[in-house]
Amino acid sequence: MATGRAIQTTILTSTNFTVMNQPEKLTRVLSLGSRKNRRPLQWAALRPRTGQIWVPLRITLIIPFLFFLLATPSTSNSQIQTPNEFLGYRPETNRKLAGWQEITEYLKMLEENTERVKLQQIGESTEKRPMMMAIISSAPNIKNLALYKNYQKQAANPAHMTDDDIELLAKEDKVVVMIILNANSRQVSTSQGVFALAHFFASEPQKNIDALLSKVILLLIPSLNPDAIDKVALWYNKYVGLPHEGATIPNRTHLYAGDDIEFDWDMLNTVETKSVVRQIFQYWFPQVVLQVGARRSRNSRLVLENVTTNDKVVNTYVQAKLNDLTKSIIAKMHSRGMAGLAIQNRPAQEPPGTLTRSFLLRNIIAQTAQIANTHYASPLYFAKGSIIQSDEPGLELLSDWNGGWWRMGDFIRSQTDLIKDLLQAVSADKEQIIRDYCQMNKQHHNTAKSKPQPAYIIPAKQKSPHAARKFLQSLYSQGIEIHKAKTTLTPGSKLEPEDYVILPAQPFERYIHHIFDSYAEQLQMPAGNDPGSPQPPIAFSLPQVLEVSVDRAETVNIENLKRVHVFQPPAIALRKEGSGHYIINHADNQSTIAVNRMLEKNKKIFWLTEDIEEDGRSFERGTIVMPRKEISANLLAFLAQELTLEVRQTKFRFQQQQVLRLKKPAVALYQPWHPEPDPGWTQYLLEKYEFNFDIIYSHTVSKRDLTGKYDAIIFPDMPPEIVLHGWLGQEAQTGRPLPPQPYVAGIGESGLLHLKQFVLNGGTLIALGQSCKLLVEKLELPIDVLRAANSHKNNSTHFFELRVDVGEPIAFGMSNTAIAALTAGPILRPRPWVRRIGVAATFLPRSFFPPANLEISNLPAAIDLPQGSGRVVLLPIRTQFRAQTAGTFKLLFNSLHLSRSKLTLLK
């Protein structure tokens, strides 16, 4: 035994395992053939064929007999506590919710008492709780995790592997499955099932479970949002046995994302999704990912997702394998006597950012399961005839559930059986899954090389170098290979030195096209108002939303490229052109941070109100001017470098030029006692761009006039009835009573009166999305609210192009066009009025994704309306949709800065 461990330690140390993204010139290969004729391990240089891109690869396949030498006796179960012994109650018990500490401590206990479980902290949550991942497998596999990590990296990037290499890897490797629980923040029932699931795998006799665990490595994420576990448990346990038991928690369970955290797989705005994605695409490269969530309790008991066969983007094999797994699991659950089973066929037009779409495009068999929820841990009884069959698109009900009791125990057993069935199906097909995963990744690499493919160029010169860097870092963290140009190419080439290049010739080719190409182009969907209209020249893509410019080149000389892993922003120095005032580029969203930092120090900051020309130089309205005496050149140069922001010292002082003097605004963000996600994303953005603000609730607005306390009040996107009435007037759902006081009421009529006084006395009200309708109707603004066909259907989000009037103050610094998100915001049309109404942006007559038949061409998307001594800014679009639509951020930021601005002459 000691000899075996010594051999393995030597091999693991000498091979110097590397991350897939690190270059290596030598590859360790194991020749195939019969045991008698097989040659020993050797080092061999793998040279790419002429014209191919160098893709580094290191394969370290350890001879199988080492695993026999490393085999250990079966785990003793004497010290493993049952969940009942550990908690003092069974996790399936009604009206009991465990907190995050209890979940992690139980997993730690299992790690200490069994060789099948290894617990790893993979990061921290937004509110600084530990993000944990439990690795579950057989004892020999747990001892050799470094080896299997390395195998997985080879399987994810098998460009230089022969078919024999792949065959051997399929035999020696294990299939890696990641299970993600509690992705939807309020659905904490999924995490309560961790106790039973982990205990089963840790304590089950080896003879019963060895066939499964010897072939599978399970990466269990007990919660994508640990903060939610504690918040919900604290809220629920407080009211158990009282009339408010099971009431919806009135605050977001994720500080910023709310339930939207499960849609953050492309952007990676939250630290939680960053931590999980790092494990997937930097360390483990799982072949299978399952996200378990909860669904409405009056619908089907269990729904598994399929991918429609007409999906033009997902690999055909991945579609077929996912659908086969779905059928296999459904069949096993049915044979076990479970009723209320359903399959949901996801449409090919599924929007970006979801787990299913994001991971399927990386050749991962990504499945989403939804189990009928209890209301937290309270049991529900459904009489016959009370079940509502959902009319969701693509939902196919396979068996009816006739009602009865539905308890936490039913949820946990369903989830445990589901995961066991998935792992058994995967382990039975282990070699085929690994083999096909390798072949798919190799095929994408070779297909991209075998035919002309455009290279995507991210120029070094960007409107916002900071945004470009964030975009590149996000791609890299998700396993995308990125190159940089060394020198200028032939005359007329789009490629310049220091430009970044994304080559499709890599395993995640389909995901690259998903990010850079239009959906209309990928899916061959008509776009615009007319279903038969031609394709638009541009369409929704992640770079457009982030305002990152991208060029396409049909051919690129790979000899002129170098692989990069770090994305430093370009060196920016303060440009001195004279001894006059400083000019800050307002086009970059980073300028907002610079302005807020200067205002925090009571520095004088101005905006030009007109386009001007001086001595052959032109300056656009909205240009940020800072007098030279306000700050030292060295400090401003440091700020420019830190923020990657263009700053110049001109020779001009703009004497007697009319400008807007900015002062630090007092900002309030309205938050209802309701778990709406948009206030969270608004809070995220305000913090990120360094605005100081207070969060105010309904009782604050309803009890007093806020004139003089705040300059601007923001009402994020939320249903008007939630703002006005809160929970009052809403029908209590099955088993879910209304929250107690003071969490029930909205702002009421008294709050509306206070808002009217606030704006008439000089304050600025800013309404986003659906909140616009409330202010238009209740403040009797001279605007018609039009009904927008399809805009409310399934609450779907459409991305539109806007035409921007950059002369309007709330649009200062914006481009002439922008991409905006419209979910359920009203369509507005101003009436003729006695005062000037500023329209900063209008809709262009096409949506990019999904196509929409909305008659909104040339109607306003941003309105700046004077009202008394103040103003109302109406933004029916979601200017900060999940912190993504960077091109429309300024409509919000500028409105805040304008709330405490004053026209003056620059002296």
Structure in words:
By secondary structure, the chain is α+β, with helices and mostly antiparallel strands. 32% of the residues lie in helices and 21% in strands. It has a 9-stranded mixed β-sheet, sandwiched between helices. Strands 28-27-29-30-37-36-35-32-33 form a 9-stranded mixed β-sheet. The protein has a 7-stranded mixed β-sheet with strand order 19-25-20-24-21-26-38, covered by helices on one side. α4 packs parallel to α9, α7 runs antiparallel to α16 and α13 packs across α15. The radius of gyration is 29 Å and the shape is globular. The N terminus is likely disordered.
Q: Specify the biggest β-sheet.
A: 9 strands, mixed
What fraction strand? Answer: 15-25%
Number of helices: 28
Helicity level:
25-40%
The secondary structure category is alpha+beta
From the spread of the alpha carbons, the general shape counts as globular
Q: Could you tell me the number of beta strands? A: 38
What average pLDDT do the residues reach?
A: 83
What's the Cα radius of gyration?
29 Å
Ends distance? 85 Å
Placed side by side, the strands forming the largest sheet appear as 3-4-6-5-7-10-8-9-12
Poorly predicted sequence stretches spanning 5 or more consecutive residues: 1-75, 519-539, 789-794
